[in-house]
Amino acid sequence: MINFLKLNVVILYALAIAGLVTELPFGLSANLRNICAVMLLIHVVEIIAARKYLALYRGSRFDSVMLGLLFGLLHFKPLKDRQKRDAA
């Protein structure tokens, strides 16, 4: 389920980038850019709130921050769940 949601987020970002190059049907370009900008701002707040989970990622901290910027809670939730499972 998480991977499906991540795929949808990637598609949303790709459509917003495509909207920078060409005009999308039904005037979606501006709306998608605004949605992506709001999502990125929310993800910055999530990164600040979930700092302790950044260290739980098996890769580098930079990679974890970048994944957090792209996916937000979809990146942190599995890390949090794994921490709880390991602690139990």
Report on the structure:
With 88 residues, the chain is mostly helical. 82% of the residues lie in helices and 0% in strands. It has helices spanning 2-21, 28-49, 51-54, 61-71, 73-87. The radius of gyration is 15 Å and the shape is elongated. The model has no long low-confidence stretch (mean pLDDT 92).
**Number of contiguous helices:** 5
* Rg estimate, integer Å: 15 Å
Q: Can you tell me the overall shape? A: elongated
Q: Extract low-pLDDT stretches.
A: none
Q: Let me know the number of strands.
A: 0
Backbone structural class: mainly alpha
What is the beta-strand fraction?
A: under 5%
Main beta-sheet strand count, sense and barrel state:
none
Distance between the termini: 24 Å
Q: Helix coverage percent of residues?
A: over 70%
Summarize the topology.
Blueprint: H1 2-21, H2 28-49, H3 51-54, H4 61-71, H5 73-87
Helix pairs in contact: 1-2, 2-4, 4-5
